[in-house]
Structures are given as C-alpha cells and as structure tokens.
TrEMBL record, chain A:
Its EC number is 7.1.1.1. Keywords: Cell inner membrane, Cell membrane, Membrane, NAD, NADP, Translocase, Transmembrane, Transmembrane helix. The chain crosses the membrane at residues 6-22, 34-53, 59-81. InterPro entries: NADP_transhyd_a_C (IPR024605). The keyword Ion transport does not apply. The lineage of its organism: unclassified sequences, metagenomes, ecological metagenomes. PANTHER family: NAD(P) TRANSHYDROGENASE, PROTON-TRANSLOCATING NAD(P)(+) TRANSHYDROGENASE. One of its GO terms (molecular function) is proton-translocating NAD(P)+ transhydrogenase activity. It catalyses: NAD(+) + NADPH + H(+)(in) = NADH + NADP(+) + H(+)(out). This is proton-translocating NAD(P)(+) transhydrogenase.
C-alpha cells in the first residue's frame, strides 16, 4: 500500500498544480488547451511501452501494440494540430 | 549515476516541462512555445522508456509507433478548423482506449504468470480499464453526434436511468470480483474482466446519448478530463509517476473547462449529464403568436446599416462554423474597417461545439485575438454600439434568459438587444437548441438577413464595397 499512497500524494499535488496553471488560461486559448491536454494524455504511451516490453507473444502483446498505436495517434496528432492552431493566433 | 536513476530523472524533467508548457498557454504570445515544450517533454519520456526497458520485441513497437504517427500526423494536417470538436472528441477516445488497453495487457500478463497480486494493483487495473473504456465509447458517441451520424437531439427511452444504475452496480460487482479473484491468482478473473469491459463500453454509450448537441462543449471537456484520469490510473497500474502527474494535469484541465461551460449555461453538471435538455421537439409552449412579425432585410439593406455605423460588434455562433463562413466574415469586416468602422467580436463561452471554438475559427481567418472579447468584458458595451451583427447564434443572445419563467432563465447572455440596431444572419426563424422562440428576432430594431451565412457574407462584401 506504501507505493500506492505515494502515488495518491503525487496525483493530488499534480491536480492542484494543474488547477493553478490552467485557471489562468484565457478563453481564447481554450480549444488549443484542450487539444494540447489531449496530446499530454497520450502519456499512456509510456505505460503501453512498458507493458509491451515485458511480453513477446499472445493477446497481451496485441493489446500492448494497439495501445502504443492509439496513444501515438494522440501524441503526434494532438501536438501537431495544437501547433497548427497556435500558429494562427496573431496579435493585431 | 546508473541508467535507471537517469531514466527516473528524465521522467521528472518531463513532468516539469509539461507543467511549464501548460503555463505558457496563459498567453497567446507564448502558447506556441509552450505546446512545443510539452511535445519535447513527451519525446523525453518516450526515449527514456525505450532505453530503460529490455525490449523483447522491437517489431511490434516500431510498427505500432509508425502507424500511430502516420494516422495522427495525417489527421492533424487534414482537419478543418471547423471540425476541431470532432477531432478532439475522437482523440479523447483514443487516449482513453490506450489507457484501458494498458490495464488489460497488464492484467493478462500477470494472469499468465499465475501470480497473486495486492489489492492496490487490482484496484488500479479495474479503475484504469473502467475510466478508459467509458471515455472511449462515450467519445465515439460524442463524435457521432458532432458528425451527425448519431442524432444531435437527446436520445431517451423508458427506464434509461434505471438501466444506467443497474449497469453501474454490475460494474461495481464485477470490478470487485476481478480484484478478489486476482488477489488469489485465480485464472477466471480474465472472463470476469471481459464482461466488466463490455459493461463499461455500454455505460459510456448510455451516458452520452441522452445529452443534446449544444451541450457538447460540456461533454467534450468532461471526456477530456476522463482521458487524463484514465492515464493517471494507468500510471498507478505500472507504478509510473510521470503518467500520474500528466494524467492529473489533463484531468484538472478538463474539469476546469467543464465547470466554466456549465457556468456559462447556468446549469449544474448533473443537469447537463442527466437533464436530456433541448432538441427541436421541445416546441409547443410558445405563448401568444399574435403581433410577432420579423423584419427581413436584403444584403444591400444590411450593408447600408453596417457601412454607415460607427461601431459594430460581431457575435458569432455555431452557424458560422456550419457554414464555414469565417473567411467571408473577415472580408466583410475588412471592408468595414477600411471605411473607419470600429469592429469588435463578442464571444460567448458556449458558442460553438467546444470551448474556444469561435476563437480558433476567427484566428484561422486572421482576426487578431485582441479584437475578441468575452461575455464579461463586452456586455456593457452593447448599449453604446450602433450595430450588432449576429452570425448563426441563437440561444446565447436570447433575451428570454432574463425571464424567470423561461427554461433558459439565468443563463448569462450577450445583451445584443441593447444596441441601436441588430442584424441577425440565420437560415430561418427556427428555434435554437433550447427549443424556445427568440424574441430578439421580432424586436423593432432587429433585421433578419435570411440565408446561408457564407452566401450572405459574399453578398455583403460586394454591397459594403458599393455602399
């Protein structure tokens, strides 16, 4: 239970940090914020890679590979489309 | 310093860069750099993971990463700015699915070892799979609603809430069973897990179908939050702090946006989620039909009103996105500005189908962001404004919100009726999403310019030039 408790600490503190940072994002950037956050949630690729590296056959390998591909769509697509949007935000 | 220490420090660096990257989104001037910083953080995390693990099979990993990169890159390049809600919607689903699959793969791996596992591990797997799967199936329904593949109206049927409750209870029971079986290293945990996953898919679908199209900003934000929480839960599964931290950041972001959207509609999250609000079928209670005459105007007349005004405020809505008329709108405004008209844009938080939807459309059309104003910033300016041009917006400018008897009572609206004159560009007099009539259309100082926003804008460009 010790490791889990540390994880909960980390989770709660990160949530608070996220709240502090994100409440100050102006409405004009809310769509890029969402797509950027979306790309960050693709961090599950790390989990997918860890699981995939531990198996070399069977269903678990398929699921791991599938998870890698989906998370990668999120990461690459999310950051790229956010960049495309933010490039358009110009000052008058 | 050994390798695993270096890897752990890389994960820490990634986490810090994610926070700094998000912080830079606080200003449009630094936002692009912030996003790139977050992308760098992701790259560091991925490289560290690849270095840290004894990869048994590189082929799967390389193929999967290549496929994901191609699909993601293609989607990001091809998507139109008007389709951002759909793209973000489906990406939420992918993120959720990835986290659920991580949990599933880990469960199967542990099962194949036949080892018993502590309660904490079982709980993390169950949670990660539940949240990830609900995000996945819910996001696909949301995507279908945005695309028009699934009806945008709330879909309800008898005993819907009872079914949801039963499903939820079933999920609790099966989730508990998985944890129990898992703990004693029982192989039947896997079969239970499949039923559990099927129930979670059904729950995701049932939670989103009763929510109407115009409530999509709330749904997309909430699913965004879930996709983060799913990643966090996957972090607990594999014991990785970088997943827990990044997931928590996304979870917080989505939740904050959800609450902002709810506030902008003066509704609680519970009401949005379970209220089955809106839809065209809600007509009927119209009040008195007498004396309601909307004054229609042709593009020439509208151009005259606009061209001889001193100040104009543009109020864009979802109709602008549907007609993809943002570039044409920009041309009209350019012409007006050349004539010396002062033009501003008023953006309601729930205009469009996702938070900030209108801002992105206007940014695409090269409208400088310092001409865009929030509800609070601009609402006092309307009574000092000559003309308001409403483009494809309805409920967000409906004065009925000030009527305590109305279904939208208390919703903060843009008080466009206070301007000297109002031009509403709309296809017809039909009701907005809330299903109620808009008295604004029948006011003496309102002119309706009927038609497709794009065509009307093209006419307006010509007429303003000639005016």
């Amino acid at each position: 239970m010790g490791e889990m408790l540390v994880g909960i600490y980390v989770f709660v503190l990160a949530t608070l940090a996220g709240r502090e940072v994100i409440t100050k994002v102006p409405p004009t950037l809310h769509t890029p914020l969402m797509s950027g956050a979306n790309a960050i949630s693709g961090i599950s690729i790390v989990g997918a890679l860890v699981v995939s590296s531990q198996v070399d056959s069977g269903l678990a390998q398929w699921l791991g590979g599938f998870a890698i591909a989906l998370a990668m769509v999120n990461v690459v697509g999310g950051f790229m489309v956010t960049d495309r949007m933010l490039e358009m935000f110009k000052k008058g | 310093m050994n390798l695993s220490m270096a890897v752990e420090l890389s994960y820490l660096l990634s986490s810090v860069l994610f926070v700094i990257g998000l912080k830079r989104l606080q200003s449009p001037a630094t936002a692009r750099g912030g996003n790139q910083l977050a992308a760098l953080a992701m790259l560091i995390a991925i490289v560290a993971t690849l270095l840290d693990n004894q990869i048994a099979d590189w082929t799967t990993i390389i193929v999967a990463m290549t496929v994901g990169t191609i699909i993601g890159g293609f989607a990001a390049r091809m998507v139109q700015m008007t389709e951002m809600p759909e793209l973000v919607g489906i990406f939420n689903g992918f993120g959720g699915a990835a986290s659920a699959l991580v949990a599933a793969a880990e469960l199967i791996r542990l099962q194949s070892l036949g080892a018993s596992s502590p309660v904490g591990e079982g709980l993390s797997i169950v949670l990660s799979c539940l949240i990830g799967t609900v995000t996945f199936s819910g996001s696909f329904i949301a995507f279908g609603k945005l695309k028009g593949l699934v009806s945008g109206n709330p879909i309800t049927f008898p005993l819907q809430k009872t079914l949801n409750a039963v499903l939820f209870l079933g999920i609790l029971v099966f989730g508990g069973a998985i944890m129990g079986l898992f703990q004693i290293g029982n192989l039947t945990a896997l079969n239970t897990f499949y039923i559990f996953t099927a129930a979670a898919i059904a729950l995701g679908i049932l939670l989103v179908i009763p929510i109407g199209g115009a409530d999509m900003p709330v749904v997309i934000s909430l699913l965004n939050s879930y996709s983060g929480l799913a990643a966090s839960a996957a972090g607990f599964v594999i014991g990785s702090n970088v997943l827990i931290i990044s997931g928590a950041l996304v979870g917080a972001s989505g939740l904050i946006l959800t609450l902002i959207m709810c506030k902008a509609m003066n509704r609680s999250l519970g009401n949005v989620a379970f209220g089955a609000f809106g839809g065209e079928s809600t007509g009927g209670v119209q009040g008195d039909d007498s004396e309601k005459i909307a004054r229609s105007v042709d593009p020439e007349g509208a151009a005259m009103i606009l061209a001889y005004a001193q100040s104009v405020i543009v109020v864009p809505g979802y109709g602008l996105a549907v007609a993809q008329a943002q570039h044409e709108l920009r041309k009209v405004i350019d012409n007006l500005e050349e004539r010396g008209v002062d033009v501003k844009y008023a953006i309601h938080p729930v205009a469009g189908r996702m938070p900030g939807h209108m801002n992105v459309l206007l940014a695409e059309a090269d409208v400088p962001y310092d001409k865009l104003f929030d509800l609070d910033e601009i609402n006092d300016d309307f009574d000092r404004t000559d003309v308001v041009l409403v483009v494809g917006a309805n409920d967000v400018v409906n004065p009925e919100a000030h009527n305590p008897q109305s279904v939208i009572a208390g919703m903060p609206i843009l008080d466009v009726d206070k301007a000297k004159s109002v031009i509403v560009m709309k296809r017809s007099l039909s009701t907005g999403f809330a299903g109620i009539d808009n008295p604004l259309f029948y006011m003496a100082h309102t002119s309706m310019l009927f038609g497709d926003a794009k065509e009307s804008m093209n006419d307006l460009v010509r007429e303003v030039r000639d005016a």
